[in-house]
């Protein structure tokens, strides 16, 4: 993920604490997992709270997220009215 063009997160499933096979097996033991379901797994290294000092999004920031093979999304942060 990038914020204002600066790459902050760049990771893959190999570095996760629990392997995907384990997560899918665990979920499947309690709910029916169907093709197209999205399983959210948390955030990789680079989250703002992990910086010293912490870095938070502010109005005007632009976040870009790309998943190879799926596409790219871009959002601009707006201040709450």
Blueprint (SSEs and pairs):
Elements: E1 2-3, E2 6-7, H1 20-28, E3 62-67, E4 71-76
Please characterize this protein's 3D structure.
The protein is of the alpha+beta class. It has a domain at 2-56. Helices cover 11% and strands 20% of the residues. It has 1 helix and 4 strands. A 4-stranded antiparallel beta sheet has the order 2-1-3-4, with no helix packed on it. A hairpin with a 3-residue loop joins strand 3 (62-67) and strand 4. The longest helix has 9 residues, at 20-28. The radius of gyration is 16 Å and the shape is elongated.
Looking at this protein, list some descriptive labels:
single chain; 81 residues; 4-stranded antiparallel beta sheet; alpha+beta; 11% helix
